[in-house]
Each structure stands twice: as structure tokens, then as C-alpha cells.
Amino acid sequence: MGRPRTNDAAVKERLVACATEMFATRPRESVTVRALAAAAGTSTAAVYTLFDGKDALIGEVRDRAVAGLFRDLSAVPTSDDVLADLYALAAAYRRWGAEHRHLYTVLFGGAQSFDPSGAVGTRDPVRPLVAAIDRAVADSVLDGEATLIAVALWVTLHGLVTLELAGALDAATAESAFASTVRAALRGWATPEAFGGLRRGDPA
Rounded to two decimals, what is the model's pTM? Predict the structure, then answer.
């Protein structure tokens, strides 16, 4: 019987899947190359052959998370109502977290965390959200420094999604908390003119 392959696409995908779950649920230092290989049903050599080691495998998991979240947020249509667009982007962020809970944990709270206070660049997974905030500030819909608004809104979203993924909120509570909290956050940064519009008809 021949030795199992250590460098094919199937092994690579298993290693990524196992690493995603392990780094989302365990301290980084407790996840060894041997443990990753065993979970994926392969040898330690595969980790080095395919990824050049554990750190590069972590990087692959994080890169996939960044690309996936960026892709989903970028797919949200743009309209003439920037506040409605921001609400839709927040909903897309929450949906991605629910559908990719392990990737979300790795990206925003696990082995390698994204720094939302860093400079916006091509690898920023929430760049579409920041771009919408820039547009809202430029259009005098939101009042404040765009980076501060972006961080504040991200903190709000992260808290909501983290509580929901942890099971701290049941489905009905999570839904109502998301709607009311995101709307309140937008109202808090709205200009007086936009605030009046928000009171008449919140983004949905």
C-alpha cells in the first residue's frame, strides 16, 4: 500500500479547515503542527510542503477570511440612500459571521486578529463599510471623523455578532437587538438634517 499523498489540493483544504476550527477554539500556542496534521489525517511534512509551516497556514486561513468578508460586503448594492446602504452592509457583515463562524473568530478574535484602527488598504475586509462612511461624511449625512465613526460602528457590530455566535442571544432577541442597535449607532453620528430623516424612517 502506497504512502498517502501529502501535497495535493484535498490535503491542503483539510488542513485549512482543521486549522480554521482549531485556531478559532484553542489558544494559538496549544495548536501544534503535529496536532494540525493529525486532525487533517496527514503528516507533519504536509504542513511544511504545502504552507512552509504553521505561521503560513495561519496566514492562509486569515487571507481566506479577509477575502470572503470583503467579497460579501462588496456585493452589497449601492443606492442613493447612504444610510440604507450602511444598514445593508452591517446586515451583510452579520450574515457572513453567522455563515462562517470559525473564520470570523480567527479574523476578529482568534489566532490573528484584524486591527480596525490600521490604515485602510486592499487587505482591509471592511473597506466597503469604510467607503460608505466616507461617502456619508462627504454628503453631510454623518458628522464626525470617518475613521472614528468606522471604528465605533465596527465595535458595535463586533459586539452584536460575537454575542450572537456565542449563543448569548436567542434568534428573536438577536434580530431585534441588531436592528435597534445599528439604527441607534447611525442616529448617534447623523447630522441634524439626516437625524430628522432617520426619525421619520429608519434604514431597514
Answer: 0.82
- Cα distances (angstroms) measured from residue 78 to each of 72, 153, 188: 13, 19, 22
Question: pLDDT digit string (tens) for 159-187?
Answer: 999 999 989 999 999 999 999 999 999 99
Instruction: Evaluate whether 183 touches 166 at the Cβ level (below 8 Å).
Output: no
Domain-located, residue 192: yes
Q: How large is the angle between the packed helices 82-99 and 101-109, nearest 10 degrees?
A: 110
- Specify if 57 maps to a domain: no
Taking the CB of residue 130, how many other CB atoms lie within 10 A of it?
21
98 shares its domain with 194: yes
Residue with cell 480567527: 106
Residue 48 belongs to domain spanning: 9-52
Question: Within this chain, do residues 91 and 150 fall inside the same structural domain, yes or no?
Answer: yes
